[in-house]
Structure formats: structure tokens, C-alpha cells
From TrEMBL:
Protein name (record): ABC-2 type transport system ATP-binding protein
Keyword Membrane: yes
InterPro entries according to UniProt: AAA+_ATPase, ABC_transporter-like_ATP-bd, ABC_transporter-like_CS, ABC_transporter_ATP-binding, P-loop_NTPase
PANTHER family per the UniProt record, alphabetical: ABC TRANSPORTER ATP-BINDING PROTEIN, ABC TRANSPORTER ATP-BINDING PROTEIN NATA
Mode of membrane association: Peripheral membrane protein
Record-level Gene Ontology MF annotations: ATP binding; ATP hydrolysis activity
Domain of life: Bacteria
Length: 306
């Protein structure tokens, strides 16, 4: 726990609103983020995630509502808060012509901390071997990781990351997930935005799903998915079992067929999977449970499109 006291929240967002002309970018958003929590703000493009994040960081003033960040109002900027928060800068905010190491040294100096953590930060984000490479010669994923390292240079308590995995290839995204997990293990409070629901489901302790400026749902990903009470779909390659046999298995609620596959729908997957295993039909079997995309569909009536 930090100096805000045991049990106190790291961030309290209370009914914030922000309009641009007639557009309600953030339309009455409230939530609390606990110390050490990895909190995700999710939603499609234009949902209001960045605006909400910038209000939390103190970069933008809300039209109404309030934010307490580590017990302080972040807007207007509080010098006392700055050493305690890390904000990931967009890659374009790097200094020209500096190597990865020099970027980190410069950020450390700006924060008034020594360069003692630079090697550790390079190691944390997997850039030790690129320390001497100029930032404009790094890949997109490497630049993202460097920008996260710069946000951590002064060892802040709370880290804000705006779409850190956007525009990365799948491998680079996964590498970055490992970095985010390590930051979380170090006890940092992380607030991040993403339009990748699958990723948030894996990484976040809790998520707020936003759409059109509002929070539609907020909870742990597991609780949100469980709340759907959606069935599990088990797909078998066609020919492994007849539809009639499948319908007689314990737990098989519905059986459907198409040219390639047999699809069993169940609310009790364990006995059904056990029965399928007994019949030696597990080869090529796929199990699909509900995801946050299904939660979004239920909440909005629309398919999720990032
Ligand atoms: N400075 C601004 N002036 C006018 N409109 C803005 C401004 N900033 C954001 N908006 C609009 O407010 C809405 C919310 O934008 P915001 O960037 O917060 O959404 P987002 O969920 O972060 O989307 P994205 O994933 O595309 O970044 C959008 O419709 C956007 O066009």
C-alpha cells in the first residue's frame, strides 16, 4: 500500500464528462482502480477511452465530474504527483537521433532520477541488445517497448498506457504482454486502453467496457463472461461421431452439423468432454466458450468491431 493508506483506491473517477461540440466523448463515467490493479478500458474506436484516460492523467480537464489520483486531483497538473505517475508517450515524442539507452537516460534526467535504472529498464522491456540502436531504427514493437520503459524510468506507482499494443504484429503483441505482466508483478497500478478484447481478457484484473462515451459493464473478465450464461460449443470433425450418437451423450443440449463439422452445444462441458474422450473423439476437437466479444454483443446488440 502506498501513502494514500491501506484500502484506499489508487484512482477514483466520479461521473466525468467531456464533450467536443455536440459530441459527448465521455458521458458520465465512474469507476475506482485499486492499488496494484491492472485495469483495462476497452471499446471500439471512438468509444471515449483516450479522452477518459487523458482526464485521469490530468492532461485534459473534464467538463464536469472529478478524478482523485493517489489522493490528489490530477488537473491542473500537480508537480507532487508527477514522480508517482508514468504516462506512456507516443513514439513520436522520442528525442531525435538518440539511441534507446540515450532516450532512457534523457527521460531519467528529466525526472531528476539517476541513470541507475536504465540497464534494468532495457532488460525489463527486452531491449538490452538494442541499447545502442537509434530509436528510428527500431521496429514498431521495440519502439512501443522503449516508450513503456521511458514511462517507468522514474519508478512510478501508477502507469497509464494508451493502446500500447495497437498496430503490432501478433508476436510483438505477445512480447509486450510479457512486459505488462512483469510490470504488474512489480506491484504497479496499470490503467491501459485497448480495442483488443481478447488481450484484455487475458491481461486485466478488471475491465470497463466503453461505447459511445459510457461504461456499459465493468467487472473481472471472468465474471462478465460468466454473467452471460452462454453455452460452450464443442466442434468435432465430421465423421468422428454421428449426430444421433452425439445427441445421446451426457450434457449434449443441441447438435448441429455442417459439411465439415459436428457442433455440440452444452452448459455442462465436463461430462460431455469425458464422454467424448471415452469414445476416442478428441482429435481435432475444438472448444469455444463465450468471450468478451460476446459480452459486447449482448450489451450493444452489435458485433464487436475494433
Ligand atoms: N480534441 C478533439 N476534438 C474533437 N473531437 C474529439 C477530440 N478528441 C476526441 N474527439 C472525438 O471524441 C470521441 C472519443 O474519442 P477518443 O479518442 O476518446 O476515443 P477512443 O475510444 O480512444 O478511440 P480510439 O480507439 O480511436 O483512439 C471520438 O468520436 C473522437 O472523434
Amino acid at each position: 500500500m502506498t501513502s494514500t493508506g491501506a484500502g484506499a483506491a489508487a484512482i477514483v473517477v466520479d461521473d466525468i464528462r467531456k464533450s467536443y461540440g455536440d459530441l459527448k466523448a465521455v458521458d458520465g463515467v465512474s469507476f475506482t482502480v485499486g492499488h496494484g490493479e491492472f485495469f483495462g478500458i476497452l471499446g471500439p474506436n471512438g468509444a471515449g477511452k483516450t479522452t477518459a484516460l487523458e482526464i485521469m492523467e490530468g492532461l485534459r480537464e473534464p467538463d464536469s465530474g472529478s478524478v482523485r489520483l493517489l489522493g490528489e486531483s490530477p488537473f491542473p497538473r500537480k508537480p507532487a504527483l508527477l514522480p508517482r505517475i508514468g504516462v506512456q508517450l507516443q513514439a513520436s515524442a522520442f528525442f531525435d537521433r538518440l539511441t534507446a539507452r540515450e532516450q532512457l537516460e534523457t527521460f531519467s534526467a528529466l525526472y531528476g532520477v539517476g541513470a541507475g535504472r536504465v540497464d534494468e529498464m532495457l532488460e525489463l522491456v527486452g531491449l538490452t541488445e538494442k541499447a545502442g540502436t537509434r530509436e528510428d531504427k527500431l521496429s514498431g514493437g521495440q519502439r512501443q517497448r522503449l516508450s513503456i520503459a521511458c514511462a517507468l524510468a522514474h519508478d512510478p506507482d501508477v502507469v497509464f498506457l494508451d493502446e500500447p499494443t495497437a498496430a503490432l504484429d501478433p508476436q510483438a503483441r505477445r512480447n509486450l504482454w510479457d512486459v505488462l505482466r512483469v510490470i504488474r508483478e512489480r506491484g504497479k497500478t496499470i490503467v491501459y486502453t485497448t480495442h483488443y478484447l481478447d488481450e484484455a481478457e487475458i491481461l486485466c484484473d478488471r475491465v470497463a467496457i466503453m461505447d459511445q462515451g459510457r461504461v456499459l459493464a465493468m467487472d473481472t473478465p471472468t465474471a462478465l463472461v460468466r454473467g452471460l450464461d452462454a453455452p460452450t460449443r464443442i466442434t468435432l470433425e465430421r465423421g468422428t461421431l454421428t449426430a444421433a450418437d452425439a445427441a445421446g451423450l451426457p450434457g449434449a443440449d443441441e447438435v448441429g452439423e455442417d459439411e465439415q463439422s459436428l457442433v455440440l452445444t452444452t452448459r455442462t462441458p465436463a461430462p460431455l468432454l469425458a464422454a467424448l474422450a471415452e469414445r476416442g473423439t478428441l482429435d481435432g476437437l475444438q472448444v469455444r466458450t463465450a468471450t468478451l466479444e460476446d459480452v459486447f454483443l449482448q450489451l450493444t446488440g452489435r458485433e464487436y468491431r475494433a
